[in-house]
Amino acid sequence: MQERNAWVDYAKAIGIILVVYGHVARGVFNAGLPMDEDNYLLVDSIIYSFHMPLFFFLSGLFFYDSLMKRGTTGLIVNKVDTVVYPFIVWSLLQGLIEVVLSNYTNGEVTLGEVFSLLWSPRAQFWFLYALFLVFVVCSFVYAKAARRYFLQLLLAFSALYVFKQDLAMGNVGRFIFGNAVFFALGIWFNEIKTYFLTRYVPLTLLFGALFVVGQYLFHITFGLNWEVGGLPVLALAIVSIFFVIALSMWLGRIRMEWLLFIGASSMTVYLMHILAGSGVRVILGSILGIDSIPVHLVVGTLVGLIAPLLAQVIIKRYDLYFLMAPPKSVSATSLRSRRAVAH
């Protein structure tokens, strides 16, 4: 029997490994190292066709139960602590470090770009920015919806995703409707989760085959790229997500502590991996003079995963939790509780 929700951590681990590799590969390519451009672009598009939609999907899995438990306001306040706080802290930390080290990295980062995070999120932090917006919108939408309407809501978000290019919406709208469909898919998936849990082997084989065929047709036969958007990208992302989920459930039959640890620590890795990966690239290239692509990709990915995990251990050991979450005395949740008591 599978350990409860171990498959979720396996799925997170698969996703975050792809995130780290993708950013490392982009850094190596943008640094002008001798990389095969066609192969790089193909792998990059395959990864980006589903790895971030996977994280929105996983975020949606436990959303409705949390909404019913905390209520709309309570859930949004909680996300201020768990999403907005690390978004602001690490956007500033990474941004300021990039400003100082801009002479050694691929691009020049200005203080103006760093401090415009509230309307123009930078680097990997766009995900947390978009995730909070999606949480806010879905908190209000699903608070009024019965479970029997989850599929209809998923279809509505799908239509907004497909036609978002034709709708007059600003950056905030694109952040929301470019990602809410995968969040809604995660919410609705609970309705069929038992089916997956009892048939994960054939479903892994089925969606694995669809993944290979779909990616081949999309990238090779039709020569498309993940940035084209629309219905083909949505379909490809859903097939890819279901493949990862079924595979993760299959992996749930065995216990791999290291992979579970990576999955459970995916937020920490996401926040810190760019600094670690970029640092490795600078050391390998500028200091050691190494331009081997396999070395850069393998070492960069490993350090991009391991360094944040070591940092997490240090944070825990020396009680530096303010780097990841607000102190309880000033957290949004505590402030709301004190205000409720006062009234």
TL;DR of this structure?
The protein is mostly helical. The chain has helices at 6-30, 37-48, 51-61, 63-100, 111-114, 126-143, 150-162, 171-177, 180-189, 193-198, 200-221, 230-251, 257-264, 266-287, 293-317, 332-342. Helices cover 74% and strands 0% of the residues.
Outline the secondary-structure elements:
Layout lengths: L5 H25 L6 H12 L2 H11 L1 H38 L10 H4 L11 H18 L6 H13 L8 H7 L2 H10 L3 H6 L1 H22 L8 H22 L5 H8 L1 H22 L5 H25 L14 H11 L1
Helix pairs in contact: 1-2, 1-3, 1-12, 1-13, 1-14, 1-15, 3-9, 3-12, 4-6, 4-14, 6-8, 7-9, 11-12, 14-15
Description:
With 343 residues, this protein is an all-alpha fold. It has one domain. Helices cover 74% and strands 0% of the residues. It has 16 helices and no strands. It has helices at 6-30, 37-48, 51-61, 63-100, 111-114, 126-143, 150-162, 171-177, 180-189, 193-198, 200-221, 230-251, 257-264, 266-287, 293-317, 332-342. Helix 1 packs antiparallel against helix 3, helix 1 packs across helix 13 and helix 7 (150-162) packs antiparallel against helix 9. The longest helix is centred in the N-terminal third of the chain and has 38 residues, at 63-100. The N and C termini lie far apart (49 Å). The mean pLDDT is 94.
